[in-house]
Design goal:
By secondary structure, the chain is α/β, with parallel strands linked by helices. Helix content is 27%, strand content 15%. The strands form three sheets. The chain has a three-stranded parallel sheet with strand order 1-2-5, covered by helices on one side. Strands 6-8-7 form a three-stranded antiparallel sheet, with helices on one face. The chain is elongated. The two termini are 30 Å apart.
């Protein structure tokens, strides 16, 4: 609140990636809330949603609302930040009946694939280097609720996954019945390292992990759900959801 003292307007200009778990949505909501409390107008400079307008995945049950998902929207929400801000405001989702004095400067033109790729230059965050990573992240982020590495601590976050106890050939074979014709996975082995500014304490730091490399996935959300079932079948003792039940906050 002190940071907002004396401001005439709060300008919000941040690149989102189109996935509910990505916490910039919560940052937007908290900024709107703080501005509304001080009667400071909010100006959202809209940007494209790099994953497009298609909506996919479960809608959050607000019983599991948290910083990685505050509102009842789908995992792949299909909205721009201007649309999200308007929805948050008009649905009355800000606490205590607050409403922001909101103005959205709309995105000009219709984004194409080059625009979608350009949204990652510079990367929206350290572990989100490109469009392919964002596409995988809509499903593979769910691994953060388990003891499986999602590739943090490597140069391929959300493009590889694994754990020390996995037999990668066995896992690849077990996943094959659940893959679409155009899906492509391969085996991989990797060692997560601490990368300052990117991933300070990754899972299985300095330990050899085995698992899968994502080359192409049509539906990362559905594929990750199948992956959980396969891991539970192959490694019933080793594979675990975290005791914090973080998976509930993510999946909603």
């Amino acid at each position: 609140q002190k940071m907002l003292s004396g401001l005439d307007v709060l300008v919000f200009d941040i690149q989102d990636i189109g996935v509910r778990y990505y916490t910039y949505i919560s940052t937007l909501a908290l900024a709107m809330e703080a501005a509304a409390e001080k009667a400071i107008p909010v100006l959202v400079l809209d940007r494209l949603n790099p994953l497009g307008t298609e909506v996919k995945g479960p809608v959050l049950d607000t019983e599991f609302s948290s910083f990685v998902g505050m509102y009842p929207i789908a995992v792949r929400h299909g909205m721009t930040f201007g649309e999200l801000a308007t929805m948050i405001n008009e649905e009355g989702w800000l606490p205590d009946g607050l409403k922001a004095n909101l103005k959205v400067i709309q995105y000009m033109g219709k984004p194409n694939e080059k625009d979608q790729e350009r949204a990652f230059k510079p990367p929206p965050s350290p572990n989100m280097p490109d469009l392919e990573t964002a596409w995988n992240y809509q499903g593979l982020c769910l691994l953060e609720g388990t003891n499986i590495s999602e590739g943090r601590g490597t140069d391929k976050p959300f493009k590889i996954l694994g754990a020390p106890f996995i037999n990668n050939l066995e896992l690849l074979q077990a996943m094959s019945p659940f893959l679409d014709n155009n899906d492509e996975l391969d085996t991989v082995s990797f060692i997560p390292h601490s990368i300052p500014g990117k991933s300070a304490n990754p899972k299985y730091q300095d330990i050899l992990c085995h698992g899968l490399k994502i080359i192409n996935l049509k539906d990362p959300i559905q594929c990750t759900i199948h992956l959980f079932k396969v891991l539970e079948t192959l490694y019933p003792k080793e594979f675990q959801f975290l005791g914090t039940n973080f998976i509930d906050n993510l999946y909603g």
